[in-house]
């Protein structure tokens, strides 16, 4: 098995563990969308679908649920009256903060037996991996043209 295969298997196992740890306060599939809006938004729904590489109807359902829950709101676009950029509300930011704290605590517990040097090295390597993965991931054309 190649190193890349081992990394892929471990990342899938990690994703399953994180999802099973404790129920999230919102639909787990909505958390990446909420985080993206908070970190990089505002975005239109079509931009979100293209960036996440999912079908627009999937984003529409998720956005509708987030709007109903008061975690995201639609704003009028001053340059294009037909557009409705999506923005995370204060309640949405509180959910993201709580989720971040929950996961940080979970990861902290898992890393508690590691030496400070091993934890720092792991954090550095993981950061490099994520940066390289983002850099090498092909982007949809409409995202590149923005």
Automatic annotation (TrEMBL):
Organism for this UniProt entry: Amycolatopsis silviterrae
Pfam families, per database record: MarR_2
SMART domains given in the database record: HTH_MARR
InterPro entries, alphabetized: ArsR-like_HTH, HTH-type_Bedaq_tolerance, HTH_MarR-typ, Tscrpt_reg_MarR-type_CS, WH-like_DNA-bd_sf, WH_DNA-bd_sf
Keyword field: DNA-binding, Transcription, Transcription regulation
PANTHER family: CONSERVED PROTEIN, HTH-TYPE TRANSCRIPTIONAL REGULATOR RV0880
Statement: the UniProt record of this protein carries the keyword Transcription regulation: yes
CDD domains per the UniProt record, alphabetical: HTH_ARSR
Lineage, broadest ranks: Bacteria, Bacillati, Actinomycetota, Actinomycetes, Pseudonocardiales
Occurrences of domain HTH marR-type (ranges): 1-131
Name of this protein: MarR family winged helix-turn-helix transcriptional regulator
Keyword hit for Cell division: no
């Amino acid at each position: 098995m190649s190193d890349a295969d081992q990394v892929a298997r471990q990342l899938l196992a990690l994703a399953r563990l994180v999802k099973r740890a404790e129920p999230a306060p919102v639909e787990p599939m909505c958390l990446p969308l909420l985080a993206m809006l908070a970190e990089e938004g505002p975005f239109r729904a079509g931009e979100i679908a293209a960036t996440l590489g999912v079908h627009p109807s999937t984003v529409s359902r998720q956005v509708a649920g987030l709007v109903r829950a008061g975690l995201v709101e639609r704003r009028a676009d001053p340059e294009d009256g037909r557009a409705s950029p999506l923005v995370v509300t204060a309640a949405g930011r509180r959910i993201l903060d709580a989720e971040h704290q929950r996961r940080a605590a979970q990861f902290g517990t898992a890393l508690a037996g590691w030496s400070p040097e091993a934890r720092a090295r792991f954090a550095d390597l993981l950061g490099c991996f994520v940066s390289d993965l983002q850099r090498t991931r092909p982007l949809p054309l409409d995202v590149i043209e923005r």
